[in-house]
Design a protein that fits this description.
Number of domains: 1
Radius of gyration: 15 Å
Order of helices and strands: EHHEHHEHHEHE
CATH architecture: 3-Layer(aba) Sandwich
Oligomer: single chain
Strand order of the largest sheet: 3-2-1-4-5
Largest sheet: 5 strands, parallel
Number of helices: 7
Structural class: alpha/beta
CATH superfamily: 5'-nuclease
Helix content: 40-55%
Distance between the termini: 31 Å
Strand content: 5-15%
CATH topology: Rossmann fold
């Protein structure tokens, strides 16, 4: 798997030649993409985009393989699917953004789930949009922190 530098301030994109844009896949979108079950409207929005995943998504997908007792063949298929998707790592700058986001959400009286906050921090650190079905989980980050969301809510599918 590819990685990005841990400091978004000094980061440069290491993507395949001339992608139109990069988009971070939230775990729900990554899972459906892996299963080739993305709804047509979201698929259309992602055409020409370089998909990326955060370290959180890699962790959550790995957790699912263990909890669902995947065999070696299915794990290898997931690894192959992930192989061309750069992974946004955590790092000092991403962690600082996470701390800012988490504190601000708590101060607003709307603490957000930890993993969603990490994913939002990765996207904001690199100024990348997030493809997700969980619009409500990220709407505070969009409204207050400028997170760009690409996707549908599950009820619209």
């Amino acid at each position: 798997m590819n990685s990005w530098p841990s400091s978004p301030i000094l980061a440069t994109l290491t993507l395949p030649e001339s992608p139109l844009r990069a988009v971070v896949l939230d775990t729900d979108v990554a899972s459906r993409s892996f299963k080739d079950r993305l709804p047509a409207p979201l698929t259309a929005r992602l055409v020409g985009a370089q998909p990326l995943v955060s370290f959180v998504t890699v962790g959550e997908l790995t957790q699912w393989t263990k909890l669902r007792h995947w065999g070696p063949r299915n794990v290898a298929m997931l690894d192959a699917w992930l192989s061309d998707k750069p992974v946004i790592p955590g790092g000092k700058a991403v962690a600082a953004i996470w701390g800012d986001l988490s504190a601000a959400a708590t101060q607003r009286g709307r603490p957000r789930p930890v993993n969603d906050t990490w994913v939002a921090a990765c996207c904001l650190a690199y100024r990348l949009p997030l493809a997700t079905f969980n619009i409500k989980d990220y709407s505070d980050f969009a409204e207050h922190d400028g997170l760009e969301i690409v996707g549908h809510s599950v009820g619209e599918l």
